[in-house]
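Bumping with the actual sequence this time:
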Amino acid sequence: MAGSSPAARTSQQWSSPDRPRMSSISCILSESRNTAISHQDALARAQAEHDRVREAAIRVYHDHELQEEQKRLLEQQKRILEQQKLEEERIRAEERLRAEEERLRALKAKTVPQLPPEPPTPVAHTNGSAAAPAQIKATPIIANSGALSSSKPPLFGVQQPASTNGLSGHANGTVQPNPSQPFGQPKTIPQNQTLSGPSPFTQPFLQPNGLSAAAPAKPPVAIDVDRYVEIHKNLKKLRASLLQQSKLSPPLKKRMGDMRRELRKNMGQLVGEKGGNKKQIAAIQALLDESLRGTVPSELVDPSDYITDRREPVEGALHNEPRLPSLFLYLLNHFSKAVINQFINECGAQPKTADPIGVIVAMIFSKDLYLWRGKTLIDILMAKLRVVCPVLFGYRGSEKTENGRLRLGWKKTETGWAPEQQHSDRMKGLGAGYAAIALRNFSSSKNTNPWPPSKYWASIARIVNTPPAEITNTQCVVLRAMIEASEEKFIHFYGNAAIAALRKALVEFPGKAVEKSPGVSGLQVLAQILKRDIGLEL
């Protein structure tokens, strides 16, 4: 009310609604206020007020509990719905994966019969006689790459004549080998070797030897890469044998451990400056020389267990004997292991750091003193590469399955698969290291290249001929690492054929990939980098 005093309003605001009002102040000041009955009445009223407040508090508490329970039930229902949604998505993904695997198996089971070889076409001469049977055209090196146009400006200052770097161009876009220029055509696989292990390589990127039309047609062949797996197992047996020998020979045990540590130490001290690794190379060679001399005796073993070919004694070879000291092969094995570790640990982030390692690999495995029956023992290193990076040797697999990851060289530990980034870093280092080994120029060396550029060409071929549905991120990561910082060496060996191969690898191959992974994008980005930095137009 407007006329009420502040004191009256305050009294009305804070008074208890359930407490009865005194009719007058006389009731308070009466003489009966201290009687027992009066006290009992006051206590009863206080108890009633206490009970009222308690019941109100209990009611509020129960209401709060009910609200909390309803809220908890709603949250639980929400979580159940989310889990149900995730399970439904997982089931749909597994169904899609199952369908893809069934389709892939159906494609693998399907075969297309090859056409019989065409009969030779005699060419008439002016005197009416028929010419000798014509040579069969080589299969195109680059599938669907098209003929190189001479109207474009020259790349890297190299003109594009009709015959480029040992590859004779034809109007239909095919390429034939020119025997007068050895680096023009990638070397082919020996005819006496057979294919086993990985899925078959398609033919467009590989060339057959120049078979004449009169010769019987032979099926395409490739390296028996599973032989490397056997070599890898034999190397494990060799290590176990040396450990057993060392138990019976304390001098061998002490020296073998020192040799292994010294070899690993010198490999870790390699630098990138030209001529900066002379001390390390000399130390490694001194260890290998000591093991060959037999200063510390070790059992003799057959080197045939650690190579892919069969060898007979060669006139003039320094080692024609049927057996070599097991300590020597043991050190080559540890040298190869150190090389692989250097590639993995140092070359993923900086591909250029692989070059000095590639130099020492070429020097060791091409040196006459370390050859057996005139040929290199580099298969020891390649067996290790085959195990850690199968993609280089034509193996394929799905990154979404256990078996597929094993086929791609994905590292698995006791705690599970390595993280994806760690796997990519490993593959980058190994791809860069492989290029540093294969793209070495031996034109001014008296030694034979232990792993020539044709091996690099073949490894690229195995990757880029992968069907679109089977292309994986791992393949793309390895392929980019093989090319990045090595493209100019590749072009030096193969000229315009290398440029066509780079177009296949960096433009056509990622373009046909079904899944656009980071590795696929990385290949396309590298093509743009080469265009920007060195003017290479693909």
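The tokens above came from a reply further down the thread. The first strand starts at residue 163 and ends at 164.
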